[in-house]
Amino acid sequence: LLQSLPAQQQLLAEALTARGGILSNLGEQARALQDFERARAAFRAAGLTTEFVPLLLRMASAYARIGDWAQAERELLRLVERTQSSRVWDGLVIALVRLGDLYNDSDAAAKAEPVLARAIALATEHGNSFGLAAARMGLARTHIARGQADAALAELVQARAGFEASDDATHTNVLLLLTGQALATKGQHVQALARYREALPLIRQDGNQLRLATLYEAQARSEEALGRSGRALADYKRYTALQMDLQRKMRLEQVRLLEHEAQTRQREAENQQLRAQADARRQQVTSLESVRRWQSLALVLGGLLLLLASSLAWRQWRQSQALRELAMTDTLTGVRNRRAIEAGADQALLGAAPLALMVLDLDHFKAVNDRFGHAAGDAVLQAVARQWQAQLRDADRLGRIGGEEFVVVCPHTTLEQAHLVAQRLLETTRVLRLPDIDPTLHVTTSIGLAQAQPGETRAALFARADAALYRAKQGGRDRIEHATGPTDAQAADGPAADRTPQAH
Description:
By secondary structure, the protein is an alpha+beta fold. 72% of the residues lie in helices and 6% in strands. The protein contains 19 helices and 5 strands. The chain has helices spanning 5-25, 29-45, 52-65, 69-85, 89-105, 109-126, 129-145, 149-165, 172-185, 189-206, 209-225, 229-289, 294-327, 338-350, 365-372, 374-391, 415-430, 458-474, 486-492; strands spanning 355-362, 397-402, 405-411, 445-451, 480-482. Helix 18 (458-474) links the parallel strand 4 and strand 5 (480-482). The relative contact order is 0.05.
């Protein structure tokens, strides 16, 4: 309590930086970046700038770990500019090495080479042996990416000597991996595999999944070049599994970060509005206090109260409208939920115009969840719903009634016209591609189609369409079946009626 405010802000910033670094190492990049942003604000409140060096390094690493290369580059370029202007040479060398590594990680070897060459020159000039070794190791990666194996091996020899002179053994695993890659580039796959075998336990112990995936991929390529197909296939499978897990975690952290940023923007907007309202009220109070006659003051206060009441009433109306819309919307896909689509069908049945209804169900959707996980399954549902919505006409209403099952209500539509709409939905599902999940993933849908009969209830219409969907599933999937009459309603009491949509 006896510390000054700047000192308290500095302690807070250092604690947030440390905690953010721990969270980042544990894979929780979104939470880590929240701590880093708060730490930056605390450092500024304390009037400090030099402490930004480790903070910006950690922020850049967190952005790189979620695949946001552009933001990571911005943070590192900011750090390069700051350390260069303040002539903090060791910090500048570290920033340049990290920037070169970022370019290597993002397959931009052409940008990495001049940055790392500058880091080598600075480290040599200022006697920074560790920074020199790190820069040479990064430059070796650049040479490997360009197929310059001999140059890479020469840099690695000097990097190893530099790390040994600095009593640093933490980079042994990377040196072994890069040496193996350089040897493989020269076609010396037996020697490369020997380096990979030495590196494997060290990388596993380090726990870096990205580096482990890189090793498995490199090892598989060398084994394949030596004709060891079985071993190569096993390593490719390990590489693929690690990559899928890394991509899944990366997408999850990206979503979490976007949610946090949206919440932050909303809070800032609300705070700004509150400040503006507070300023406006203070100005109004000041103006009212200058009025000499009580009658005028009463009129002004009455007007303010009326304005406030109107504002509250308008806000309450807006909130009720938003809540009503939320209650009628499926939170995952953004289309109508079961309650909304059933209400729409009831309303359409009251009209005299022809009405068609179709029930759609994604084929083998459980296999998507089992193979790629529920997050991927949710992404498939969202993508399918967007594509379907784009194919529907203005009057058509799309809703999700549970799991992977959807309904489309088509007012003023005959069975033949609805069949054309259903055919568009069938085709757009077939051609849908989902490269962020798996480039080979294809999805199809089965559709049951029914036209409302005079005096028919919504339940009976849904049952006939559902029975037609059941026939489409039984008939081989990826097709459209029509409900022809009351017999379909009877069939709905059989197998189709027992099918309860599973919540995704």
